[in-house]
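Work through what follows:
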Amino acid sequence: MVMIKPVDIDPSVFVKELAARLQEYPEIKAPGWAVFVKTGRDRERPPLQRDWWHVRSAAILRTVYRLGPVGTSKLRTKYGGKKNRGVASEHAYKGSGNIIRTILQQLEKAGLVAQATKGLRKGRIMTPKGAKLLNSLAKALSGPLPKRPKAAAEPKPEPRKAEPKKAGKRKDGKRAGPDKAAEA
């Protein structure tokens, strides 16, 4: 049997379901200032979703699972974007470091990620508890694949019968060719 990993599931569906599960953790909640802040310099307004904090937490948790030891700087780059500066050319800006750092601290307090050094790389990695959460969710989302009903066999269209070409006569009494018969 093939084991389904979290990276095998559609990210938008996975992050939405993971955000719903993260709302059950009391350690993961939006601070009071989260209502007023933008998620980066490239944004014009704060997020409109009420549960955006949990959605971002779920996305960061999935990223930590995928990329191994990952730090705030790499996540800031990932969640940044291009700023629309009117007629001036666009520039890439990083995402908010405070949001990412606070989410990582909350995930660490919940026991889902931990700080570690792996070779030269230093950052947050998944704990067994976090990996178990993501793997169980991936297994639940994959579930048994629904069987698609077979389409009813459509009758094949009958081939067209070629009509014999008629040679007609022109007004002057001479024979016309097959393609000129329609004009007469």
About this structure: DSSP finds five helices and four strands in the chain.
